[in-house]
Amino acid sequence: MTSLGRASAIIGAGTLVSRLTGLLRSIVLVGVLGAVGSEAADAFTFANTLPNSVFSLISVGVLTAVIVPQIVKATADADGGNAFISKLFTLGTVVLVATTAVATIAAPWLVVLVAGRAPLEAQALATALAYWCLPQILFYGLYALLGEALNARRIFGPFTWAPVVNNIVSIIGFLILGALFAPVPTKAAEWTPAMIATLGGTATLGIALQALVLLVFWRRTGLALKPDFHWRGVGLGTVGKLAGWTFLMAFASLAAGVLQGNIVSEASGSGASATVTANAWLIFMLPYSVIVLSIGTPYFTQISEHAAAGRDPEVRADISRSIRTLLFFIVAAVAAVAAAAIPASRVFTSSAPDAEAAALVLLCYLVSLIPLTILFIVQRTFYAYDDTRTPFWFTIFQCVLIVATALLAGGLYQAGVIPITMLAAAVALGQSVASTLQTIVATWLLHRRLGGLGVRTWATSIGRFAVAAIPAGFAGWGVFQLMGGAGGWTASDKIQGAVGTAIIGLVVVAVYIALLAAMRAPELKAAGGLVRRFLPGR
Q: Which of 247, 270, 293 delimits the end of a domain?
């Protein structure tokens, strides 16, 4: 537990700084381009989402699912995994270069896929920005290859700290855009080639530097990375078979996400659309990243080691311990974010009414935070056993539900049942429902495979956490109302929104911990040990 705690602290600190600078990046971007009703902001969101989407299709699922367990196994080779990793990186780089070239050529068609219902001017601007942004696919891929290899060698810090470089570069670029072209137009038709080059070039430069930073730390792995095009004989065939399922899984998720974005794009220029959903997801991902990734990633490496050694009882113990620890923090985060949804959303919007519209989208996403936390461990346990086929099937189940709920939301809008201002929220709620049902199915399948997961222990812990979190959340909401509610000072500006969010969050956490202490919850001791590792000098 000592090494896990130390690794969690390193990852958590890096992720926290990364996410905070990412939040600042989004705040600056909203200040320059706007959010609700801004065609320019939505166009950049469409364009900058494309490399993330294509990258997730070819790389994220494959790397997360396959690379860490395979590198852990390769370390047992006589050369410590040198040959395997060099061949793997060479093949990965070739695939990334080819995919980047094809995607850049196909930029106009990709924009139509993700923003086909947006105004034509917004689509044209998104296409121009996409030519600048799509080269990010290559740099995202290199960053992930290097980072996952470092993680597999238990070098956790660089992967989580490198995005800070990207965020700083982006912030500088957005400020330059605002200084050179103020006031930056929100109408897509008013944008010039110089504006497009400044915004798109800055975004891609940040990702490139994020990848290059990891090379500085490669020496710590003790591996000699070199080009090697002889891809036979070291197990890449096994990687390919495993990656096939995760590629199909990523493709299905991407297709579902594209449909969601296409439906939401109809609200571009009229209400909450792509930029609002992206920022709501950013807020949603802050506790997920800081808590789930920082604590869960070291557990994934340990689960992979125990699974590779065939120690199933230890795997079951890892699963139970990691989920209880994660949920201790996540349940509190759900209560805090729900209570502070409006002031938190005000940080990324231009007015109080816009904050209320964005908060509704955030709350709809928030429904799935607890299920996705459980899914993180469950899904990666399948990967640790080299089983990528089962996650494919329960992800397909989720994707079908996402498509169905997104189409339902679009149909309800077309029928006049919901206004266009609620379209994005309806799509977000559908995704949360799909993710919740996916988690239930995935947990049941893993329970069958391992002959038990200690689910009763989780349920008992969740019950304790809920008993503390519900009144804590109401306490935070009460403080929000005392500060004026939606019409008060916490929704009057971005800085006040951030301050109000911090105050509400502190109240929620204080009440939550006090109630758990009164119940003598056993999870408090373990959680306290993790928290202490984040303190200076620890």
A: 270
